[in-house]
TrEMBL record:
Pfam families: MAS20, SET. GO terms for cellular component: mitochondrial outer membrane translocase complex. This is Histone-lysine N-methyltransferase SET5. It is a single-pass membrane protein. Keywords: Membrane, Methyltransferase, Mitochondrion, Mitochondrion outer membrane, S-adenosyl-L-methionine, Transferase, Transmembrane, Transmembrane helix. Residues 76-386 form the SET domain. GO terms for biological process: intracellular protein transport; methylation; negative regulation of gene expression, epigenetic; protein targeting. Residues 311-328 have a biased composition (Basic and acidic residues). It is found in: Mitochondrion outer membrane. Residues 311-332 are annotated as: Disordered. SUPFAM superfamilies: Mitochondrial import receptor subunit Tom20, SET domain. Its main location: mitochondrion. It catalyses: L-lysyl-[histone] + S-adenosyl-L-methionine = N(6)-methyl-L-lysyl-[histone] + S-adenosyl-L-homocysteine + H(+).
Amino acid sequence: MAQASLGEQLCTQGPAFAVPAALAFYRALRVYPTPVELIMLYQTSLPPEVFAIILELTNMDVKERAEGYYDFFPSKSWNVRVQDKDGKKVLFADKDFEKGDVVYKEYPIISALDWDLLEQGSHCVYCLKLVHKVSEYRPENDRLNTVYCSKDCYTKAKQQYHGILFTLDPLLPPEMAAESGAASPEEREKAQAALVEYLKSNQKLANFLVAKWVALQITIETSKVVPGAVHPDKDLPKYIEDDAPEYAIGDHLERLRYLDASVTPEETEVLRKVFGAALPGLEGSLTEDRHVTTLGKMLYNAIGICYSGGRDDKPQLAERPEDQERTRTPYGTSRQIGSGLFLVSSYIQHSCDPSVRPSFPGGTNKLCLMATRAIKEGEELTMAYVDVTQHEGESAEEARRRRRHELARGWRFKCECTRCLAEQTEGSVEVDLGVTADESKIEDAAARFEAKKAEAEAPETD
């Protein structure tokens, strides 16, 4: 807000101040939650010479960060790299591993506890650790009645997303908030109560992850314009080295695959009102289209968090199988305690004969990727998205049919891994899975970046 005001003041001083004005507007653009909308506003309201400089600065920045993204993500310390295979970006080993080796460890950028456990107060809603009564931390006047294993976990959650979603704490210091004309505490409380009711009635973790994700984006960008503010991203996973180009968390999400999803205008409005009540203008952080795409990414990429073999007391909602929420976990979603978005692990493709397995040996949401067999450098890493074991009383053909049905319902693809092909017998009946091809997608912007890079790298022909 301050940079935009500075730009307006400089514009009034004439063409000689076009460059400093453009720089101020550009800095405002870098922290604005929906930059495309702000660019459109600039185009209609700013002098042409100022707008032209802003566009040039934006294009230079986008080109540098977009075209070389996978040269930097993830950094070499992860021991893996992202490469193309069959039209997808997938994860490959960057060194040899033996069976039982830890390939890497990864914290989720966001996670959510299963709703029944949240209501029980049995686990920390930030790190998903089992909470002991003697050490639990319960914040006062908490709208969700959440429990944390420590005050440190609560502080991190509050700085990253909890504060804007479920408390009345101001997003900006008083002097800056006064300029923005913030909504009344009553309006904000009403908006948050509607969000809690929506999450409770729905109980889909993907919706909770979307709310946390958008809130995290807002708090990170807002902290950049508040002098002396605590930066919420200081506690997030480190994906890229310090000397690499700067990437926002939105740059990472933009490149992930997603599934078609659906939300109603009313669902989007519930979230928009929470953000707008926290700070007028922030409702623009979430459009209905962006809501749909972000939800589709959570549905496709979320990994189920299971430790100690998972649990067997997860309530089953009265839903059709095709409507059930699924997360990637070899134990089966019914055994998870929650789910999270792990940005590096999102690039691991499924196989019914996987080379790696996500493990949570510390009893928290920290993922340890374990090699299930020897892996050579340059080999693709694969994990099981579903329970691929053959259950007692189940034939090999029945087990194959079960897991392929679950994969088709949860991730919209027909599994044709080596194991599925090997177990297909001459007498087996191929049932209709409802999918004929992989229905996951990437965003248009990411597709254009990759197409331009491929064109530039293609050998010249006579």
